Amino acid sequence: MNSENTVAPDNQEDRLPAVRLMASPFAALGKKAIRLVNNLGAAGIFLFLAFAGIFRPKQLVKILHQIYYIGARSFGIIALVSLFTGMVLGLQSYHALVQFGAEGALGTLVSLTLIRELGPVLTAIMITARAGSAITAEIGIQRISEQIDALYTMRIDPLRFLVSPRIAAAIISFPLLTAIFDVIGILGGYISGVLLMRASSASYIYRIQSNTDIGDIADGFIKAIVFAVIVSTVSCYQGYFAHMRTDGHGAKAVGLSTTAAVVLSCVLILVSDYVVTSILIGG
Amino acid sequence: MDTPFIEFRNVTKRFGTLTVLEGVDLKINEGEVTTIIGLSGSGKSVLLKHIIGLLKPDDGVILFEGKPLNEMSRQELNKTLSQISYMFQGNALFDSMTVYENIALPLRETTKMTKAQIDKKVSARIEQTELTEAASRYPSELSGGMQKRAALARVLVTDPKVVLFDEPTTGQDPVRKNAILSMIAQYQRKFGFTAILVSHEIPDVYFISNRILALYQKKIVFQGSPEEFEDFDHPFQTEVIRSLEGLQHELTGMYSKRQFKLQNHARMKRTGESEIYAVLVHTLQKDYLTANAGHRSHEEVLKGVEHCIAEYFATAGGFSTRLKTDEFATVLPYSNITEAEDLSRDFVNSLKNRRSKSDTVIGSQHEHDGKGMDFKLLIGVAQGLPSDEIEAVIEAARSKQKETACLYCDARR
């Protein structure tokens, strides 16, 4: 009896490291899950407060300035990318359709692909690369050089001053740039499909007019607005909390935050694209 | 008993497992210049950030005019904190805005002032801080000293009741350091705000401070006047002050006030009871200087004269200290009043066309080419016995001061 009593605790102690070893992946997973939930919650509050700040006084000039920065200055790259996207789409689609004698559907294919999918997604990705990264870097530098703290000491709400105008500008700019992407993309499809591959011009234009309705355009704009909120929130959030990164400090933290903002934005654009598409098709 | 303007009661702050402040108690009085001194990394900036609300204590309370900040309503807290301005160690100027825009920012964003009113106020501050030519330039295009002045102008533009300065002289050369300190002192007198400084510039900060707080090993170990701090017997003195004083003597040839007293005490021990000594008190006419020049030039003159006094009287066996920003005292052992007066006359003559350690040229007023800066030097002489208190002899010399020279200083390198 006595010997059993003395042996049992030793066995338990022997087993403890093994149990810990087996549990460690779950513990790590749990920690990551908690961090993810924390970050999602923080980002949600961040977006809510910044969004509320859009409607405060003295914001109009700052929003117009950001529309110029995020929107107008992205026009060139959006025009270039959309032209070649439309041209490739026109070329590939023509070769696929001609095998079935359905080259008359080229206009429909190009316009619906661009308006429903490629326009909003590629526009969002291009703006992420051009303006999203710059937003993160700019806010991140302001954070590490205490400029955000300085705003607080001047009783200026940093979220209202720095983040709200950017979110408002993104919500306005993304649909506009998406519309430009769609129009120039359709023109690109016309150049490659009609002018180069000799498809029927009348059929291309007629199919676009007859098969594209306002619902398709609205769906594209809804996606653009969702992407605008995602990209601007992720970019601002990463820069705003650059100083809280555990994997780097100072300039390195800003660099890591910028990378994280671009990667996370692109991933979230594609994930949310699927989710929004499912909802829209379901609806 | 009067309620302190700002008070910390048993404030503790931790960052994870690291405790930076532990049971800090301190009091700050209204309308005074209070300087917090301590070693690098001792938590001075952390302490300052608690006052403006950038950090919150883990334990303890902070009271503003007797009312705990943590018990104030949001509106009340905003109103209280809006009376406080903070000048950051790195200035925290917005790189993408011009100096003018940086200074105008708090007015544009937090007040309902018209454009014309803002322009008037900002222009006044720009002029007062001698930044007129830099107003349309970006911070990155300015020198360190100009950036400091721009940050100071931004801090003052809202007419705050309290201004917190986080190491305002960091990264500045010795001349600019003192220029910034004298600028803070001058604006504090002019605008009447309560100034709280974090600084390493010992003993220079003593000249502008009404109170000194010493932060050592997570606690405030001293609160009192600079004079009281001279007699403060604590390991802090050994570790921090003496090493800095040694450096000060090395740089200027002047002793700190504490070293000066010790030197005098040692001299008295060596001499007999009947051995007389003389004390000279030199003053540069401050208002006259300020009226004619900027802070930088003012400080150049002070430094130049400081070097000359230290050098000249050291050769005659004397030792000197800086009493106030513009006042210096020299003890001449074994000299009577007549010998001291002769020496002071010779000193004034030697100042003509003299180049000091800091390369500043000082000379007779009538000799210069109109490009330098004029100033007046007052000297008073008194004699004392070892039994006399040195302060009393200094006071006697001060009361006998008369205009000894009208000089000019050319601080151009």
Report on this structure.
Chain A has 283 residues and is mainly alpha-helical. Chain A has one domain. Helix content of chain A is 87%, strand content 0%. Chain A has nine helices and no strands. In chain A, helix 4 packs across helix 7, helix 6 packs across helix 8 and helix 8 runs antiparallel to helix 9. The longest helix of chain A has 53 residues. Chain A is globular, with a radius of gyration of 26 Å. Chain A starts with a helix and ends with a helix. Chain B is of the alpha+beta class. Chain B folds into two domains: 234 residues, Rossmann fold; 158 residues, Reverse transcriptase/Diguanylate cyclase domain (Alpha-Beta Plaits). Chain B is globular. Chain B is built from 13 helices and 17 strands. Helix content of chain B is 40%, strand content 26%. In chain B, helix 3 packs across helix 4 and helix 3 packs parallel to helix 5. Classes of the chains: A mainly alpha (283), B alpha+beta (413). Chains A and B meet through helix 5 of A and strand 6 and helix 3 of B.
Question: Nutshell version of this structure?
Answer:
The complex is a heterodimer of chains A (283) and B (413). With 283 residues, chain A is mostly helical.
